[in-house]
Amino acid sequence: MLFSSITFLYYFFPIVLILYFAAPKMLKNAVLLLTSLVFYGWGEPKYVFLMIISIICGYICGLLIEKYKGKAQSKIALIASCIISLGMLGYFKYADFFIDNFNAVTGLSVPLLKLALPIGISFYTFQILSYTVDVYRGSVPAQRNPINLAAYVTMFPQLIAGPIVRYSDVAKQLDERTHSIDKSAEGIKRFVCGLSKKIFIANILGELAGLFLATEQQSVLFCWMYAAAYSLQIYFDFSGYSDMAIGLGKILGFDFMENFNYPYISSSVTEFWRRWHISLGSWFRDYVYIPLGGNRVSKLKWFRNIFIVWMLTGFWHGADWNFIVWGLYFAFFLILEKLYLGKFLSKYKAVGHCYVLLAVMISFVIFGAPDFRLAFECIKGMFGMAGLPIATAETLHYLRSYAVIIVLAVIGATPLPKKLYAMAEKKSAAITAIAEPVAIVVLLLLSTAYLVDGSFNPFLYFRF
After folding, report:
1. Which long-range contacts does 423-427 make (Cβ < 8 Å, 24+ apart)?
2. CA–CA separation, 200 vs 192, rounded Å?
3. Are 222 and 83 members of one domain?
4. Pair 278, 137 in one domain
5. Confidence of residue 424 (pLDDT cuts 50, 70, 90)
6. How many domains does the chain have?
7. Count of helices and strands (H, E) across the chain
8. How many CB atoms lie within 10 A of CB 290?
9. Which of residues 151, 177, 203 is at a domain's end?
10. pLDDT at residue 463 above 90?
């Protein structure tokens, strides 16, 4: 079930709110759990059982880790949790990748399993792992109420595509959280803004990216338009989903971490990754990079740690070589900045900003391409090395058609709209207090009209 669907907006979520707020405090997590299972099972009910098995294993392992704290059994329970969680993820997401590459190397024909990827498995696997690892570290006590732990893992606002909410961040909120009209109003505002970003920016940019992939009349200009459109589409698609998740969380009394902080204003790749998919970056930092030794090791091991983390980051996104190359591509730039470019980029921020935009656009061409051939052809085309014309009549037509949305997307990817709103609110708080709810209602009505028409795309990050 998509957030950007009539079913969710006007049937599922209103029913959830009625049941949730009608339930007494002690039953709210149970209501959240049951409705989240319905949400997840709406599209693929058989995989609900897989998620429940993962939760039960995480719950039992957490109790055993705490019971035998300081003993060998505690470490064995942690290892068991990692093997079970990562084993399920590996089987469903990566089995065919390894079989396919095994066949390519050996010349054999081992049949592919052709398993459907359970939606959200990459996210809830990491959540369960963060829970058991934190219990092992003593950061949080083991959760003795299975309903509370299951509600944390299955919580529908962030279940399908994040942000990756750590148990330590919401442990107290599972027992005690604040519900208020102001908080709900803030949540509604955040949700509608995210929905609007998805529908009115990401989807339209997705149309332009699709036109590039479908056409045979490519040009240098069209290659650049595609790179820019896809880079902006994936930002507004995923940040829009994160906004909706955070907004829904607030309505239900939860405070989730921010997942994006205007990454396209960065002046270095290092800064970009502090602002992009923050929950994923911090997860790999705390559960992979630091345990490997971080930067408190020899330079050679430090570089090894960076390459391991970024190879895994790429591989986490998908079972294909383009994702691994995408991750290692960023590892290369991060090491380059740490060795040589860091001081230069901090001194010449305008140059750094252009460098980041170029590096990121090329990266997303690799990330989003269906195969390496198309990715390399597009990159070659961007730099005039593919024998393409500078522009064609078709390209110019699409540029005129999509120029306004591209400009709006570029402006929207910066803090400028937020600053302008803050200035307007400061000058006339009374007017903005009236205009804001009106604008939210109008955006919701326009979004509904768009959805009724049936013109929308699934979230890109559902693939990962």
Report:
1. none
2. 12
3. no
4. no
5. confident
6. 2
7. 23, 0
8. 14
9. 177
10. no
Q: Residue 407: phi, psi to the nearest 5? A: -65, -45
Same structural domain, 409 and 378: yes
Comparing CA positions, the residue from 248, 313, 281 lying closest to residue 32 is 248
Residues 138 and 198 in one domain: no
Evaluate if residue 464 carries a pLDDT over 60: no
Total residues belonging to the chain = 464
pLDDT value of position 120: 87
In a domain, 10, yes or no: yes
- Structural domain including 118 reads 6-177
pLDDT score at 220 = 95
User: Could you tell me if residue 293 is inside a domain?
Assistant: yes
Chain segment 39-51, per-residue pLDDT in tens: 999 877 888 999 9
Question: What is the set of active-site residues?
Answer: 317
The answer to whether 243 touches 200, Cβ cutoff 8 Å, is: no
Question: Residue 53 — very low, low, confident or very high, per pLDDT cuts 50/70/90?
Answer: very high
Q: Rounded to whole angstroms, how far apart are CA atoms 379 and 363?
A: 10
Which residues neighbour 25 within 8 Å (Cβ) at sequence distance 6 or greater?
none
How is 323-354 classified by DSSP, letter by letter? HHHHHHHHHHHHHHIIIIIHHHHHH-HHHHHH
Q: What dihedral angle (degrees, nearest 10) is formed by the CA atoms of 242, 212, 122, 292?
A: -100
Are both 146 and 242 inside the same structural domain? Answer: no
Dig out the tokens for 388 from the structure.
């393409």
Q: Of the residues 143, 177, 211, which one is the last residue of a structural domain?
A: 177
Closest CA to 48 of 9, 94, 95, 1: 1
- pTM for this prediction: 0.93
Helices assigned H by DSSP within 257-348: 269-275, 278-284, 299-317, 321-336, 342-347
- Tell me, what's the pLDDT at 325? 95
Instruction: Check residue 23 and give left, alpha or beta (phi > 0: left; psi -120 to 50: alpha).
Output: beta
Task: Show the tokens assigned to 291.
Answer: 């345990």
Q: Which two tokens stand for residue 373?
A: 């051939």
Q: Given this model, what pLDDT does residue 455 score?
A: 60
Residue-level pLDDT at 457: 60
Render pLDDT for 191-200 as a digit per residue (tens, 0 to 9): 999 999 999 9
